[in-house]
Amino acid sequence: MIPTPKGFGDLTVLGWTVFLAYFGAAALCYRAAASCWRDPGASSRLCKVWIALSAILVILGVNKQLDLHVWLNAYGRLLAESEGWYQNRWIAQATFFSGFAAAVVVAGLFLIWLGRGYLRQLSGALLGMAALAAFLLIRAISFDVLDLRTYVGAIKLHELLEMAGLLLIGVSATLYATRTRSVGAS
To answer: pLDDT tens across 84-142, in order?
Structure first.
């Protein structure tokens, strides 16, 4: 049985605000996708990028409050202790982080590849995803290995990256949907 990790969930006002921001940005990406599908001149690849962004944001939003990564870390620690390799857990941590970093890079490259030819329309959203990717990598490596969580004023740098990324994605999706609607109305 995996014990409930300490610090489970971000139950602060900021934590709930960011949680809701994930779903707000996901809804805006979905709206951009819907506008894209209604535009007869739009590419299905472009529409799929907006859908993919929406799905990624929903998954990250769910993880924001459920802290699935905290459970994974607790399970890994329990496994390392029960299997007798706790003193060498850094090998598993480095392997996990390397795999996670590779997955984040591959996902980003896939989005860029899928959106090729439309990178100008997607630039804000992709820049926002890059900020979220940086946030995720800082959080992943700061878990047990290094503490890269520096502060900018009262806010942690990785939290600033997270909020900025969500804002960029939401604004980009809104601008795209607005432009698509106004072009369709003309």
So the answer is: 777 877 788 888 889 989 999 999 999 999 999 999 999 999 999 999 999 888 887 76
Taking every pair of C-alpha atoms in the chain, what is the biggest distance, in angstroms? 68
* More confident site: 11 or 51: 51
> How many other CB atoms sit within 10 Å of the CB of residue 22?
24
5 close to 77: Cβ distance less than 8 angstroms: no
Using the CB atoms, write b or e for 142-169: b if 16+ within 10 Å.
ebeeeeeeeeeeeebebbbbbbbbbebb
Structure tokens at 143: 């878990």
Kind plus residue range of the DSSP H or E element containing 155 = strand 155-156
Coil, strand, or helix at residue 151?
Answer: strand
Residue 120: C-alpha distances to residues 71, 73, 145 (Å):
39, 38, 37
The pTM of this model reads 0.83
